[in-house]
Design goal:
Shape: globular
Low-confidence stretches: none
Largest sheet: none
Number of helices: 4
Number of strands: 0
Strand content: under 5%
Distance between the termini: 22 Å
Radius of gyration: 11 Å
Order of helices and strands: HHHH
Structural class: mainly alpha
Number of domains: 1
């Protein structure tokens, strides 16, 4: 894993966009988790569900693509 974020520009990778477009939420979550060392796949899955407006208790989507920061927030809430 490597950190592809600089704090201000947490942009989805092409891999993440591809999985989002095909609806493969698990693969999309893995792409999010691979972008930062401190994000695990389970937290990324919740962030992906949230970003797509899927039912996740107590969440409100901030955008249509999950970010590493979204996954970090999930981990912080646990």
């Amino acid at each position: 894993m490597s950190d592809h974020t600089d704090g201000e520009h947490d942009e989805p990778t092409l891999r993440q966009k591809l999985h989002a477009a095909t609806g493969d939420r698990d693969a999309e979550a893995e792409a999010v988790a691979d972008r930062a060392d401190d994000v695990d796949v389970d937290d990324a899955k919740v962030a992906v569900q949230k970003a797509h407006g899927e039912s996740v208790e107590g969440t409100d989507p901030d955008g249509d693509m999950a970010t590493v920061e979204d996954a970090r927030e999930v981990a912080d809430d646990e």
